[in-house]
Amino acid sequence: MKFSLRTFVPALLLAALALVPLYAWLTQQPFYLTLFGRIVIFAIAAVSLDLLIGYGGMVSFGHALFLGLGAYVVGIMGYVGIDNGFAHLAVTLALCAAVGLVTGLISLRTSGVAFIMITLAFAQMFYFLAVSLKRFGGDEGLPIASGSHFGGVTLDNPNVLYYVAFAVLCVCLWAGARMVNARFGMVLRGSRQNDRRMRALGFATLRYKLAAYVISAMVCGVAGMLNANLTHFASPANMAWTASGDLIAMVVLGGLGSLVGPVIGSAAMLLLEELLKGYTEHWMIVFGPLIVVTVLLSRRGLYGLLGDLEVRRARRALQVESKA
């Protein structure tokens, strides 16, 4: 079997993520569970956004809206005394699907910069709605006293939460791979390249795009629900345009249209952020140029860079064979 960096590195990353709770227990450093739990959760959100940007060509600058909705479902339901995780999950999926359907129907009538601005506008509308909810913390956010309880399994336990989030990530990667390699994904990619031609061939591209938008919204909502259990806090900041910008940066840094790229991007971004914060509070001054350099080296991000290294290695092998 031929060795491939594009297969080996993501597999190694997932294996390392699976062993984080064990490492945290052996080193008696629970901080690692929080840090890598955040990485896994944001990887889920980034993978959901990659379905839109990388495969559908829909650059949503308001995707964090659904991250915030998932968090507020847990926060508000917990505030009124409902800690049933199945109820949290059902309401999160239903709410994100409904909001995604309505906002998607409006946003997808446009494209390009107009689409970006409309998705941003919707996210800001819900951001200010959350700020206005004074009963639920307003702009100060809403503390969450109790996490989601799934029968005998509670997400208050950091190890349980981590493995639940990791399992959700693995399911998203598996289901995403099946989806983008099926007819659905082919139509999405074709629409990204030439929407008019796809419609001329008889494909209802708006329906496919809307389905992708709603699915992406629901997955991102689940990530928001998990994040609320991790931080025990729901804040309007979860819906801010800066949060959406972070998700886009993770997708671009990792590699558009690759699914595993956003996982690499979220890990690289959050680990580098944590490292740089140890040296300076102005870490963004250093982090920004690093993203620019990565994109310049490979337009397909870090995952694409692995592919470039494989191509160079293959060329060297051919040169050696030709000389021999």
Automatic annotation (TrEMBL):
It is found in: Cell membrane. One of its GO terms (cellular component) is plasma membrane. Its main location: membrane. It holds the Pfam family BPD_transp_2. Keywords: Cell membrane, Membrane, Transmembrane, Transmembrane helix. GO terms for molecular function: branched-chain amino acid transmembrane transporter activity. It comes from the Bacteria. The chain crosses the membrane at residues 34-53, 60-80, 86-106, 113-133, 160-180, 201-227, 247-271, 283-302. The keyword Transmembrane helix applies. It is a multi-pass membrane protein. This is ABC transporter permease. It comes from Paraburkholderia monticola. The lineage of its organism: Bacteria, Pseudomonadati, Pseudomonadota, Betaproteobacteria, Burkholderiales.
